[in-house]
Amino acid sequence: MIRLSAESDREGLIFLWKEAFGDSEEAIGLFLDNRYIPENTVVSENDGKITSMLFLLDGKLSVKGKLFNSYYLYAAATLKEFRGRGIMKEMLDFSKHLSYEREKDFICLKPAEKGLYDYYASNGYKTVFSSETVVISADKTDDISVITSVDYDRFVWDDKSVDYAIKQHEFYGGKTLLCREGRCLYTVEDGTCTVKDIVFTGCDLRNMLHKIRISDAPTCFEIDLPFGYEIDSAEYSVKDSGMALAVSDRAENIISQINNAYLNLTLD
């Protein structure tokens, strides 16, 4: 039976999460304590056991400057013994109908691995998100000029979601830079600073990286940027970074216009 979750499902969700993703109970509790909303969580139950789950997190998709009410689908999983029975497809269908009833426009997600893009495509999702991975030597960052602002489609999180993403990132040992030029979440390992999520206010990437160089002394940077930014002395690669399902009629009419949207703070 597929249904919305209840508080009494918490132990079943933890058991399934541990089997599917291998996280500690402390890490799972961090998510459940901060982001779990039973009526936004879809589960499948068999003889009293939670066999599948997925979480629908509130957000908005900005397309050509217009905001569309959306969900971000997160942590979809099925117990090993129940896989291969089509349960997740039924869960996705349930989520689509639920979203339509709640007047949402899109459901967005980031497949956990490349092979899952085909699976979600078979369920109606389209690849609309992408990002640029830029690799640049730390001693070249002072040559970066102020980046011209790019008007890009993007997924928009509320402040509560951003606060949790930072909390989760730091729980796993990541660092956060908050400054007048913007915000970024990053890690430093073996001299490489990986900037995973970035939001600009002043579009001065050079100054943001300079602050990290002072505090962490990396030798190079690997940065995920919204598509369309250009930086001299850097190597580029473009990758798909997420998918969206049009739920409403107006979403169906505009999804073909979404081009290289930016999806960050995906909690992966």
Give an overview of the whole structure:
The protein is of the alpha+beta class and 268 residues long. It folds into 2 domains: 143 residues, Aminopeptidase; 110 residues, Gcn5-related N-acetyltransferase (GNAT) (Aminopeptidase, 3-Layer(aba) Sandwich), CATH 3.40.630. Helix content is 28%, strand content 36%. The protein has 7 helices and 12 strands. Strands 1, 2, 3, 4, 5, 6, 7, 8, 9, 10, 11 and 12 form a 12-stranded mixed beta sheet that branches. The longest helix is centred in the middle third of the chain and has 15 residues. It is globular, with a radius of gyration of 19 Å. It starts with a strand and ends in a 14-residue tail after the last helix.
The proportion of strand residues reads 35-45%
Q: How many structural domains in the coordinates?
A: 2
**Regions with little confidence, pLDDT below 50 for 5+ residues:** none
Number of strands: 12
Write down the overall mean pLDDT: 92
What are the secondary-structure elements, in order, as H or E? EHHEEEHEHEEHEEEHEEH
**What CATH architecture of the largest domain do you see?**
3-Layer(aba) Sandwich
Basic shape: globular
| Rg on CA atoms, Å | 19 Å
Content-based structural category = alpha+beta
Task: Determine the fraction of residues in helical runs and give it as a percent range.
Answer: 25-40%
* Continuous helix count: 7
